[in-house]
Each structure stands twice: as structure tokens, then as C-alpha cells.
Write a structure and sequence with these properties.
The structure is a homodimer. The first copy, chain A, has nine helices and eleven strands. The first copy, chain A, is of the alpha+beta class and about 260 residues long. Chain A has a six-stranded antiparallel sheet. A three-stranded antiparallel sheet of chain A has the order 1-3-2. In chain A, a hairpin with a 3-residue loop joins strand 2 and strand 3. Chains A and B meet through helix 3, strand 8, strand 9 and strand 11 of A and helix 3, strand 8, strand 9 and strand 11 of B.
DNA sequence: ACCTAGTACATGTATGTACGAGTGGAGGAG
DNA sequence: CTCCTCCACTCGTACATACATGTACTAGGT
């Protein structure tokens, strides 16, 4: 703790003690005195250093945690998070040339990056489309859709959940309604069936995860998620699929190319 | 509080009390019993209802706040956040046809959406490019860049901060190095100067804000930010500008179009 | 050599108290 | 009637204490 050089509290400051302590630790992290993976001094050590109550300290540590700077591990200590964004999604990831290699976008990308992709929790059901889904797909309210849910993992770590909706009229009885949708994924099947894909629209939000999302993606506290809704349009201008995905923000960097013209 | 129908605690559950309370309140919010803007029962009311200590309650409320579901207002109460995403950035926002209308992207978009755009804190300086900036701009380390910082507001509320970097060799002595960059913004100036823009690349991350960012954007606790870095490429393939922006996630939804081909 | 119990230490949960500080309404002074 | 003071209620900060629970290491027994 010596090299940390944590300053003393400033009793004249208006800033509350627990925030001052959080500032000191944050600064130490920024400065590199507490590099990623390093153990933050324990609560008792910090209590002794600052001469404050444990609650005050926990409030300070809570701030850092909610900022995503640290993770607490029960019984072990508090550690500085290391968050190397691993995956980048480029804007040509759904290009037909990739699909023709016979691999779904996620699989191809992950292997290219040297990771081991996997998919689990695949569930398929058929239900009436909810209002927003129906709207995006251009369906009448109450029309039926095939719902494909699954979770993507890289090297065993969950990174993304995805739920696709395809009009039942298109997908019923096809391989799209099977757990294994076959080489090239859903989009390859759609094209085989004559729905030549024209373009995609992606809508991106950023927010804190719901409880179930945090659980499914094993997110540390203070980690927000990308919420991405992609709509696939066929050549006739009709939407043929929408895919609702929630992605851990630690792992993803999204990349897009925009025309200037 | 009667219509809230908050359940009693389950003493047999393994789930800690403060999390159970958070669950109840979250459920009430989801259910609509606590609509956006509604006042959450005060700490003392909840203490009476559940028969727990104040700290326990504050822990529960802290969870909701860190999830971005509520905001506490000192002396008034805790309220359910209403967060209508207002702005959508379409992927053609930098199309030349908009630029030729003589308005910068932000101004045009905001006015179209019926808001009053403004820009403040405009600062211009010239410094040596940091490593990552130099790399993106294809400059040698230590080469000089013009740095334009500013903050964008809609109806007086800050929504985005942006910092642009342009090689000094290009921008020095031009209007780009002036606080008012003129009609159509930086990109219009670059094209006038013969750097015909070819395409843009955007790189999007999502994370919790730093303290200064939260302050500059007046973010409530539990609100993450989009961190977007755009690189503008001229027809010769060289990068002519990069723009590093931090956007409040409750105000923005980003939209992109991807080709299928 | 191996396994186990104990122990020290870490964070997690929960109670209680006290006072500070912002908000807004009630009620009295002018 | 208006203004202002005061008070009740809100959340914010900080203290002290207790016990629960997870982790890692050590000493001891088998």
C-alpha cells in the first residue's frame, strides 16, 4: 500500500469523505499505481489508513464498483477490473460472401479472432407477435412468429444473448424452425428460400442490464450492455427477420462504415 | 402505497432482504404500478412496511439507482426515471446533401426533430498528437494537430461532448481553427479545401462515464454512455479528421444501415 | 503423502444511532 | 394579503456493532 501514496483526507473540503476516498482510489487506478488485476487494499487496511468507519469505506468502494472500475470477490478482496475489449463487429459482417462460406456471422468472426465460439440455450417457439415485433416486421397484430432464442459464448464465456423473430408464414416447417438452422445460419436459409436479402438496419441502445441479463451474461456490477435490434430486409423491401440482441459492453466494440455521399 | 401491493419479505429465502426489496420495487416499476415520474415510497414508509433498518433499505434503493431505474432527489424523494430516447442518429447523417444545406449534422437533425440545438464550451488548441490519435490519422508521433472541443445541447440540456482532431498541416490558419467553423461545419470546410470526403468509420463502445463526463453531461447515476470515435477518410484514402464523442445513453439511439452484399 | 479442521482475513448483510441539508407547506407577523 | 419563519419530512453522510459467509493457508492427524 506504500507505493499507492494515497493522500490524506481533506477535512476542510466540502466533498464528502467517502467520495474523497473514491477519488483517491480512482486516481491511483488511472495513474497505474493500481494496474488491472491488482488487489485494492482491504477494507480494514483502508479503515486504518483513513481512520473512518467501515460503512464509509464501503460507500467509497461501491462508487468504484458502480463505475465498473473494480470487482469485489467475496472472501478474497477487491480487484481492479481488466477490460480488454475483445470483439469488434465490423459493418460488413453480414455480407453474402461470408454467408457463402457456410458459417454464421458469429462463428466465422470468432474463429478468425482465434476464439472458440459456441452457442447454447437454443430455444424455439411459435407465438403471436408482440406489438413492437409485429410493427417492425410489418405484420398485423396477433400474427404468428417463430422465435429463436440462444446465447453465444466465446471460450466458454457468455458474451451475447439473441432472440430472432421470423414470420411463421415464412419459417414454419423449414429448418429455421429447427434448433440447428444449418450452415450459414438463418440468413443463408432465407436466401435459399428465395428471400434475397437487401440490407439490414441496426438500432443500438446502451443501458444497464436487467437482472436476468446480468445473470445470463455473467456481468460484473457496473457493466452496461449494448442492446441491438437488427431488422433484415429482403429485395422486395419487406422485413423478413428481426434479431434482438443484448451484448456485454466489456467484450464488444461495434464498428460501422458510413458513406459520405 | 396501497395500490403498489408490495409483497412481504420471504424469511425462508436465501436471497438477502435488501435484494428482495429491490426485486419488489423493480417489479412494481415493470408492472406499471410505479409509472415513470412516480414517487417511490419514502425510506421511512418502506422501513415501516418491511420492518427493516434504514441501511437495508438504502441498499435496496441503491440497486435500483445503479440500474438506472430511479433517481433520488435530496429533500424530495426517490422517483422513477422516465427516459424517452429522443434522438436517433441515422446512418446517412453525414451525407453530402445535408452538408450542402449549410448546416452541421447536429444542428440539422435536432431542428428536424423539433428541438433547439446549441453548442457551448468551444475550445480550440494546437498540440502534439497523442499516440492513438496519431495512429488513427496516420501521422508520425509528435506531429501537430488542431483540437476542437465542444459540448452539444438540446433545449439547454447537454447531450454530447465532442473533440475533433485535424492534422495541423491541413487546418492551420483556416476557419477550422476558428471557434465558428462556418456553415456546414468542419466537413464542409474540408471539402471546400479539396479534401473530398469518401467515407466515415465509426467505432462504438459503451461504458460507465468518468466523473468529468457525468458532470459535463449532467448524467444521473446509473446512466452509461456511448463512446464513439469517428474517422473521416478523404478520397485518397487518408484520414483527415477524427472525432471523439461521448453521448448520454438516455438520449441517443444509434441507427445504421448495412448492405447485405 | 494426503486429507481435514481450524484459523485468520476477506467481503456480505443487517441493526442501530446521530446529525446534516434540501424541500415544501403551515402558520404567524407585519 | 403578503412575506417570512419555522417545522416536518425527505434523502445524505457518518459513526459503531454484530454476525454470516467465502477463501486461503496452516497445523495436525491419519
Amino acid at each position: 500500500m506504500a507505493d499507492l501514496a494515497l493522500p490524506e483526507l481533506d477535512p476542510t473540503s466540502d466533498r464528502p469523505v467517502f467520495k474523497q476516498i473514491a477519488d483517491h482510489l480512482r486516481e491511483a487506478i488511472d495513474r497505474g499505481a493500481l494496474p488491472p488485476g491488482a488487489k485494492v487494499p482491504s477494507e480494514s487496511q483502508l479503515m486504518a489508513h483513513y481512520g473512518v468507519a467501515r460503512m464509509t469505506l464501503r460507500n467509497a468502494l461501491q462508487i468504484l464498483q458502480s463505475e465498473g472500475l473494480t470487482v469485489a470477490e467475496h472472501g478474497r478482496g477487491v480487484f481492479v477490473r481488466s477490460r480488454p475489449p475483445v470483439r469488434r463487429l465490423a459493418s460488413d459482417r453480414f455480407a453474402r460472401r461470408h454467408r457463402e462460406r457456410g458459417k454464421a456471422a458469429f462463428i466465422a468472426e470468432t474463429e478468425d479472432a482465434g476464439g472458440k465460439p459456441s452457442v447454447d440455450s437454443i430455444q424455439i417457439e411459435e407465438t403471436k407477435a408482440a406489438a413492437d415485433v409485429a410493427k417492425r416486421l410489418g405484420l398485423a397484430k396477433g400474427e404468428s412468429v417463430i422465435v429463436r432464442s440462444r446465447r453465444y459464448l466465446i471460450d466458454g464465456h457468455p458474451v451475447e444473448t439473441a432472440v430472432s423473430y421470423i414470420p411463421s408464414e415464412i419459417a414454419r416447417g423449414t429448418r429455421i424452425a429447427q434448433p440447428d438452422s444449418g450452415p450459414g445460419g438463418i440468413y443463408a436459409r432465407l436466401e435459399e428460400m428465395g428471400y434475397r436479402l437487401n440490407h439490414f438496419e441496426e438500432e443500438i441502445r446502451c443501458r444497464m442490464p436487467l437482472r436476468e441479463e446480468a445473470k445470463a451474461l455473467r456481468l460484473a456490477p457496473g457493466v452496461p450492455v449494448f442492446h441491438l435490434v437488427r431488422t433484415a430486409f429482403a429485395d422486395d423491401g419487406k422485413a423478413v427477420e428481426i434479431c434482438d440482441t443484448v451484448m456485454s459492453s466489456d467484450v464488444y466494440v461495434l464498428m460501422y462504415q458510413l458513406p459520405a455521399q
